């Protein structure tokens, strides 16, 4: 009998599959992992407990309207990550060309 990976493991694996220069939303990630509409709220908590924290591209997960989360004290670091990947974040904290940069999960 083949066991399916847990929801948390699927979230982790899908997050690692997002290529540089692309973003996804909390909701799209939750749906791709097999979760319902409320599952998006658990993404941050799940990833916060995942192994190998440094490998998780948190900056590639954004809000549904294209707004990025810039943690207090780490705004410049996060902005550099976006710039390095060619992602432009406007002065209101939204990704330019958001729809074109959305990662499609297979």
Question: Can you walk me through this structure?
Answer:
This protein has helices at 7-17, 26-32, 43-48, 75-84; strands spanning 24-25, 61-62. The protein is mostly helical and 106 residues long. The protein has one domain (7-101): Arc Repressor Mutant, subunit A (Orthogonal Bundle), CATH 1.10.10.10. The longest helix has 11 residues, at 7-17.
CATH architecture: Orthogonal Bundle
Q: What integer is the average pLDDT?
A: 93
The gross shape turns out to be: globular
Percent of sequence in beta strands: under 5%
CATH superfamily: Winged helix-like DNA-binding domain superfamily/Winged helix DNA-binding domain
Features:
106 residues; mainly alpha; Arc Repressor Mutant, subunit A; 2 strands; 32% helix
Summarize the structure.
With 106 residues, this protein is mainly alpha-helical.
Sequence-ordered SSE layout with sheet pairings:
Blueprint: H1 7-17, E1 24-25, H2 26-32, H3 43-48, E2 61-62, H4 75-84
């Amino acid at each position: 009998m083949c066991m399916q990976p847990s929801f948390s493991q699927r979230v982790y694996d899908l997050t690692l599959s997002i290529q540089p220069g692309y973003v996804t939303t909390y909701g799209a990630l939750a749906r791709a992992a097999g979760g319902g509409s409320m599952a998006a709220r658990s993404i941050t908590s799940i990833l916060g407990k995942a192994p190998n924290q440094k490998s998780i591209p948190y900056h590639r997960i954004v809000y549904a309207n294209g707004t990025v989360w810039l943690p207090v004290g780490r705004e410049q670091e996060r902005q550099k990550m976006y710039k390095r990947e060619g992602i432009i974040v406007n002065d209101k904290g939204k990704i330019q060309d958001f729809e074109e940069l959305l990662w499609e999960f297979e």
